[in-house]
Design a protein that fits this description.
The protein has 313 residues and is an alpha/beta fold. The chain has 13 helices and nine strands. It binds beta-D-ribofuranose and calcium ion.
Amino acid sequence: MSRRIILDCDPGHDDAMAILLAHGTPEVTLSAITTVAGNHTLELTTLNALRVCTLAGISDVPVAAGCAAPLVRPLVTAPEIHGTTGLEGHAWEEPAARAVPDHAVDMIVDMVMASPGEITLVPIGPLTNIAVALRKEPRIAERVREVVMMGGSYTGGNVTAAAEFNVYVDPEAAAIVFGAPWPLTMIGLEVTRLAAAGETIFERIESLDSPVSRAVVGMLRFYQAQHLRETGVSDPPVHDPCAVACVARPELVPCREAYVEVELAGRLTTGMTVTDFRRRAGVPFDAKVGTGLHLDGFWDLFIDSLAPQAHRF
Ligand code: BDR
Ligand code: CA
């Protein structure tokens, strides 16, 4: 049965691809898109989500804007990766729709409370909206089906040596999310760095030859150039679709149980997701952690998800 998800995102190039994957794969039903500040300001991440919806012909999914800043710290954005608009590399049309008036936090709470055991939350940006939703209505922890997030890592970060971007931007929110009594899967950099788009992937997407595929290639080329300049690595990791893939086809992402805690006070390590795979008396595991990715299956899923959209035009 298709899994209902709320995609909480900060588009962002890889967020845009996660929206397209969630829309285009039958294993997942996109019930709402909620936006948060992260890769760029809330204004731009919301505009970008709407732009992607227009591109893909997504007209029946509400887009709700959420928190404009982290819980405690000033917002850190990522223009060095995602450009000045957050989504450079394609000439975007004016969005066909506007965001709904509801706040993202209310939308998350209302949907989860109304459908016990049905909704999977898929946060792929900083965890501010999810943490505030938990504070507003702690019972969402019992009502949600599960949480599958892109963020964190157990072998080193990307913003700092220790911290991954989504957790680094709002570590206090991440600590709340990891501390809640709900089933949580962390899809961190160990998984998403494997989803590096090489030339064969570019060619496969290009060969779909549709407005959506051309936009994806344009975005990926921009993202590739930025990533190469920043890191010296040429094949850019398509982080956020990995979390959607884990919901759609869990067998693609091997996981292990662990105890994960977010570092909030490190001199060099704030935002680190300290991951303990050891079994220790009195410390129950509180998360599943992605440890790998079946690449052929992942890319087939992603590219197939773009194909039906190709036929809409
Ligand atoms: C995460 O950071 C953002 O820049 C990406 O969209 C992704 O969610 C990777 O660290
Ligand atoms: Ca993101």
